[in-house]
Amino acid sequence: MHVNLPPLGWNTWNTFGANINEQLILESADAMVESGLRDAGYNYLVIDDIWHLKERDAEGRMVPDPEKFPHGMKYVADYVHSRGLKFGMYSCAGYLTCAGYPASYDYEWLDARTFAEWGVDFLKYDFCFHPMTVRPDTLYKRMALALANCGRDILLSACSWGSENTKQWIKETGAGMWRSTGDINDSWESIKLLAQSQLKVQEYNGKGCFNDMDMLVVGMNGRGNVGFKGCTTEEYRTHFSLWALLNSPLMIGCDIRDMDEDTRSILLNRNVIAINQDALGSQPFFANNFIWQANENRNSFSEPHFKDYPLDTPIIAKYLDNGDIALGYFNFTDAEANRWQLTLTADNLGLPLNCGKTFEAVDLWTGETLRASNGTLEIDKLAPHACRLFRVKIVDK
């Protein structure tokens, strides 16, 4: 399945883990509609691991746990579809799933047919317990080919965590998105680790196979399966902004039946979602003037070099389909960032000083408009763990 835009939706794992059942899925489908998530573009509802029994049936098919899903998976899929949503499920390229349940190694074609019969639209395909005697690209090609011939349009979400040089071969497989990180948890430290790892691999991102930076933890507030410490609203806003700007699929992980207003304001910000869902699907790039070198003097600079990445205070830009530019300022440090780190020249966005044009930047969180002056856009300071996300318009001087 070719994917032109990063998929949006909700997945059970981050909050519920093994504690999933039919009622939860039906209620969550209702919540996606009633909360406005569906109308904002979130259309995949995905059941993760531990949905089935530990043994296949006499015909070799996976069996949904009858205590959790008494009416079977087609019943659940039909209900999800009736709410105007798409239905997703989980399997794995190994002998067992990560939780130790039957996986799809050597059953790819049977499982693909089964998923198609149930009405599945999305398959998250994990990487645990796979045989080391088979190349990883072959494991994903097997399932991709089986899905392409199962009689139903099913998106393959490759979840190999970026291991075994995934970035070098994943686009060969037919996957529509690929997990390029380890597992996220609901803490600032986890968000920072995954974010900074992704800044170095954006050349492997783009239409047809988007880098999946793992599911969102926005709104978990320290609760659930990967709850951990929780984050502040500002940290969740930074998390959502970067995932959106870097073209990551946006898969919600909180309990969408019980979202507070801060969570709603983040997940339903249509201006930020539009940056993620822009039709151009352009590769983001660094727009920093200098790279701040943290050393004993704390005041040293170096000119940008292709091996250097401003990981602590990156300024990231992305061209948009209508000629606008998405522009994000991020502070991953525990100290306030200053104007030396945050000043941007228009030339870094491709806008020459004497072209007769300048730019205006609208903050997608506050609505504030900033106008470039003397060919520069200067922000005086940025709090620790905070961000500014703008949509930039090119205007006459």
Rg of Cα set: 22 Å
Uncertain stretches of 5 or more adjacent residues: 292-307
Number of strands: 20
Main-sheet strand order equals 7-6-5-4-3-2-1-8
| SSE-based structural type | alpha/beta
Helix percentage range? 10-25%
How far apart are the termini? 45 Å
By DSSP (H or I, 4+ residues per run), the number of helices equals 11
Instruction: Provide the CATH top-level class of the largest domain.
Output: Alpha Beta
CATH architecture of the largest domain: Alpha-Beta Barrel
Per CATH, the superfamily of the largest domain is: Aldolase class I
Which fold name is given in CATH as the topology of the largest domain? TIM Barrel
Share of residues in strands: 15-25%
Shape: elongated
Largest sheet: 8 strands, parallel
Number of domains: 2
Q: Mean of the pLDDT scores?
A: 93
Which descriptors would you attach to this protein?
397 residues, alpha/beta, TIM Barrel, Immunoglobulin-like, 2 domains, eight-stranded parallel sheet, six-stranded antiparallel sheet, 11 helices, 20% strand
Structure, briefly:
By secondary structure, this protein is of the alpha/beta class. It has helices at residues 13-16, 22-34, 73-82, 108-118, 136-148, 166-169, 188-198, 233-245, 261-267, 270-276, 339-342; strands spanning 8-11, 44-46, 86-92, 122-126, 155-158, 177-179, 210-212, 250-252, 285-286, 291-293, 300-302, 315-319, 325-330, 337-338, 344-345, 357-363, 369-371, 376-377, 381-382, 387-396. The longest helix is centred in the N-terminal third of the chain and has 13 residues, at 22-34.
